[in-house]
Design a protein that fits this description.
The longest helix is centred in the N-terminal third of the chain and has 24 residues. With 156 residues, the protein is mainly alpha-helical. It has one domain.
């Protein structure tokens, strides 16, 4: 997956976020809130058994929000994935409970924010990537195409 390009795009994407109106410390909190909000929307769509481009667009919203937090926290180098790592994720087992998966993501993100640690953030990132590839069944190409369609591609 073109993670680096996705991160760069998120760095330059301006979506009217409230984060620009706060101090640096408050900006981190707002970016985490926006990420949690995007996750909630995604998981409510999966609970309603939505499919297709609307669900993929929602997944890409979460990816962009993750990238924005990673950019702010200067953890983007941790988010990079090789093709081999992505391929390994594609062959992992399927979760039986999206609700539990959502709660684990929330827990890891909150731990990352409150303890200012990159490890839980990275764990949540890997869970999200695996969720898109395995549970939602998207290919890296489908994800990238929708992401860059929605947020632009700075490398083109």
């Amino acid at each position: 997956m073109q993670i680096k390009e996705m991160i760069d795009t998120a760095r330059h994407f301006e979506d009217g976020s409230l984060a620009g109106k706060f101090t640096d410390e408050e900006k981190a909190a707002v970016l985490y809130i926006e990420l949690n909000s995007a996750l909630a929307v995604l998981f409510s769509k999966t609970a309603k058994k939505m499919e297709g481009t609307e669900l993929l667009a929602s997944y890409c919203d979460v990816l962009c929000a993750f990238c924005r937090v990673g950019n702010h926290q200067k953890w983007t180098y941790l988010m990079l994935l090789s093709d081999e790592e992505t391929d390994r994720m594609r062959h992992k087992w399927t979760s039986h409970s999206f609700a539990k998966l959502f709660m684990i993501l929330q827990q890891q993100l909150n731990k990352s924010f409150f303890e200012r640690q990159s490890e839980p953030f990275l764990h949540a990132w890997h869970i999200l990537i695996k969720f898109g590839l395995v549970e939602l069944g998207y290919t890296p190409t489908q994800i990238e195409e929708k992401y860059f369609e929605k947020f632009g591609n700075l490398s083109s």
